[in-house]
Write a structure and sequence with these properties.
Elements lengths: L2 H25 L8 H20 L3 H24 L6
Helix pairs in contact: 1-2, 2-3
Length: 88
């Protein structure tokens, strides 16, 4: 396995862990859907997976992860404007 493939796979796994961790912390009520941490974990997860799926030329996955990243940014903006942003 090449060094680049190793790093691209690592980013993909890191993105998957970000998604799973953020959802787990949401459903266990440790994070709120309006928290900056929740949106950031989703944004990072999506961006890591975008890089991974671009490398793998999996364009449907690139598309869905770009949409996910855009929704995370939108959530940050909406929560900040409405004053709903919480620390946890």
């Amino acid at each position: 396995m090449s060094d680049l493939k190793f790093w691209m796979d690592g980013l993909g796994w890191l993105g998957a862990v970000c998604f799973l961790a953020s959802y787990y912390l949401l459903i266990t009520k440790k994070w709120k859907s309006s928290s900056f941490k929740y949106h950031l974990a989703n944004l990072l997860g999506a961006l890591f997976l975008v890089v991974n799926t671009l490398y793998d030329t999996s364009f449907p996955s690139v598309f869905i992860n770009l949409c996910w990243a855009a929704m995370a940014v939108l959530g940050m903006v909406v929560d900040r404007k409405s004053g709903l942003e919480k620390n946890n």
